[in-house]
Structure to design on (296 residues):
């Protein structure tokens, strides 16, 4: 508590003799900016930061050494859901930028699923199951793993998921039955979410962006928040391309990836991203479904 953020972050530089010729204050400023902290705050003390900001300081303390492997022990356990998403997004970004490997230790299986490529399940110090993340979460082999997943993801909803697989929610008639022709009056690329309850009916629709799909790229949690507020099983993200061509753009792809990652962390099912094109005479209204195309 007696050390400033600058001292906390820079402490490892002297211990490990990293870049002894460089100005340490400059290095601290660079890494603070990289993890989303204002370098002007480096003179503040820990009690002057929020929980999420203190976690970013801890990440900066490790990253200033430019490691290849980072061990993360319960990095999101004391954070609320929204801040958890922000920290996971930061860790993913750093991993892509620096080619990092993580050993991620956590009891929060939603975060483990969102972040990990391979998973090892342990009980009383013994490994009970290990494998690729998709395999462990999709088809757990041990009773202990199945019990953990049941507690974390409410696998009692299996019947709902089986019905989902038999009746895809991206059928155009199902979407238009709920939205109708209202999409035609929307301004360019307004983003809406259709909330779905566990009986496979629509709860309601929510407008979450007012101008561009890029707004959703900046705030992917805003897409998910209505589903949490209304206790929906999942959601479909819908927006229109009045130009007529519903083919996904690079921004659409980035938004879909980030919303999916955030939904995984927040424990909400991202069912589909549907882009609606402009109708033409004598033809059905064109659309593009990420789920139908196998991209979700």
């Amino acid at each position: 508590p007696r050390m400033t953020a600058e001292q906390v972050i820079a402490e490892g530089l002297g211990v490990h003799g990293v870049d002894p010729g460089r100005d340490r204050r400059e290095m601290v400023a660079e890494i603070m900016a990289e993890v989303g902290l204002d370098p002007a705050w480096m003179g503040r003390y820990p009690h002057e930061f929020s929980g999420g900001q203190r976690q970013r300081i801890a990440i900066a303390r490790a990253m200033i050494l430019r490691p290849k492997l980072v061990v993360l022990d319960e990095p999101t356990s004391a954070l609320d859901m929204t801040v958890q998403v922000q920290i996971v997004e930061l860790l993913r970004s750093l991993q892509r930028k620096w080619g990092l490997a993580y050993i991620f230790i956590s009891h929060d299986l939603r975060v483990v699923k969102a972040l990990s490529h391979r998973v090892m399940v342990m009980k009383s110090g013994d490994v009970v199951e290990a494998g690729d993340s998709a395999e462990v979460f999709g088809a757990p082999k041990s009773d202990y793993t199945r019990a953990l997943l049941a507690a974390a993801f409410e696998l009692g909803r299996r019947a709902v998921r089986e019905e989902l697989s038999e009746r895809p929610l991206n059928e155009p008639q199902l979407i238009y039955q709920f939205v109708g022709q209202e999409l035609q009056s929307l301004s360019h690329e307004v983003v809406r979410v259709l909330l779905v309850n566990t009986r496979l009916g629509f709860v309601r629709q929510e407008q979450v962006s007012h101008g561009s799909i890029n707004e959703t790229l900046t705030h992917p949690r805003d897409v998910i928040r209505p589903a949490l507020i209304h206790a929906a099983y999942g959601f479909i993200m819908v927006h229109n391309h009045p130009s007529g061509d519903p083919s996904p753009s690079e921004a659409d792809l980035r938004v879909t990836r980030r919303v999916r990652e955030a939904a995984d962390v927040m424990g909400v099912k991202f069912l589909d991203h549907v882009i609606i094109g402009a109708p033409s005479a004598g033809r059905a209204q064109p659309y593009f479904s990420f789920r139908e195309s196998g991209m979700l």
